[in-house]
Amino acid sequence: MRSDWVLDVLADLRSFAHANGLPKLAEQLDDTALIAMAEFASRDERSAPSGHAADTNKTGGHLVLVGRS
């Protein structure tokens, strides 16, 4: 199951928080996105067929969107 939409929503919320003077919320959303990516990767590794690496490109591109500015 693709989880990109969750990261997109978190990135949108972070942008809103940052644009509206809510830096602590923006920072917390950064942390939340990192946790989500780690959990998605862990879940994908557990569900990958034995002997094959999970597809880590599903969420990898979102680091730029949710990174601290």
State the gist of this model:
By secondary structure, this protein is mainly α. The protein contains four helices and no strands.
Helix content: over 70%
**Low-pLDDT residue spans:** none
Instruction: State the order of secondary-structure elements, H for helix, E for strand.
Output: HHHH
Average predicted confidence as pLDDT? 81
Q: How does the helix and strand content classify structurally?
A: mainly alpha
What is the count of β-strands? 0
The biggest sheet, with number of strands, parallel, antiparallel or mixed sense and barrel status, is: none
**Separation, N- and C-terminal Cα atoms:** 30 Å
Strand content: under 5%
Radius of gyration: 13 Å
Shape: elongated
Q: Helix count, per DSSP?
A: 4
Count of individual domains: 1
